[in-house]
Amino acid sequence: MNNWDDIRYFLAVTRSGSVSGAAKVLGVNHSTVTRRIQSFEAKHGVELFIRQRDGYEMTEAADTILEQAQQMEEQSQQLSRTLYGRDSRLEGPISLTMTHDMFEYCLAEDLAQFQRKHPGIELNLIVSPGLRNLNSREADLAIRLTQAPPDYLVGHEVAGLQHGIYSSRQRPPDEPLGIVLWRDQEARPDWVAEHFPKASIALRVDNLSSMYAAVRAGFGVARMHCYMPDSLDHDDVIKLPISLPPSDWSVWVLSHTDLRKTRRVQLCRKFLLDRLKEKRGLFEGEQSVS
């Protein structure tokens, strides 16, 4: 009978392509991964990986068992979710995932109040721009800006999203206008072509906090979700009187369907829904001041 830990180590090396990468994912040291893989190979008398200079390459034997190993992983995750979903205690850990700006500018104070009210619940925050894997319980609850969440998640759409174009109040009107874009925006977006056709690209960034800081520093104008600049409400950053259509993305609170009966997850989910609904006007741009 195969040890599930052997399968975990095998899958980690398969996905990362290296022992060091697998060690990082599993939270163990390099030698532990090597020892477990060698033990797994010796137990079955096969070689699973060919050691190359740039990583580990799967052998035919490894490729043969990969699908079965993935099925074992899914069964283990489902077992964990089923047991966790029947947990009725108001104590223990809850893992939350959301973006940095959502936590810092919208929910940090609220979650501090939740934790003080329920000291037996330990909150674990995973700051991530993408949707962490709720299927494997990397997180129990996710707050995400998305068009449509995956089918295996249950959730509530809390609010729509509105964009605005923001500028530094101190920007000299006679200086050439710069624009601040996302790093992955290769082409000039429509709002630039329509409203600022002569502007030049001054800076590209990869997160909302940096975009806001760039606007405030005077790099130029930027199109941002209203909730962050409006929550900060700095006098030296203004929203320009330019009307933009609502975003087709929304704010969602999400969890895996198997966790719907976990009492502490239910409690935290309801708390987040209530607090985010109170901030609906912030997300939908109703608090913007030009």
From TrEMBL:
Keyword set includes Zinc: no
PROSITE patterns named in the record: HTH_LYSR
InterPro entries the UniProt entry points to: LysR-type_TF_proteobact-type, LysR_HTH_N, LysR_subst-bd, WH-like_DNA-bd_sf, WH_DNA-bd_sf
GO terms for MF: DNA-binding transcription factor activity; sequence-specific DNA binding
Single Gene Ontology BP annotation: DNA-templated transcription
A Pfam short name: HTH_1
Domain HTH lysR-type: 1-59
Superkingdom of origin: Bacteria
Keywords, sorted A to Z: DNA-binding, Transcription, Transcription regulation
Family label: Belongs to the LysR transcriptional regulatory family.
Protein name according to UniProt: HTH-type transcriptional regulator CysL
Organism: Granulosicoccus antarcticus IMCC3135
Encoding gene per record: cysL_1
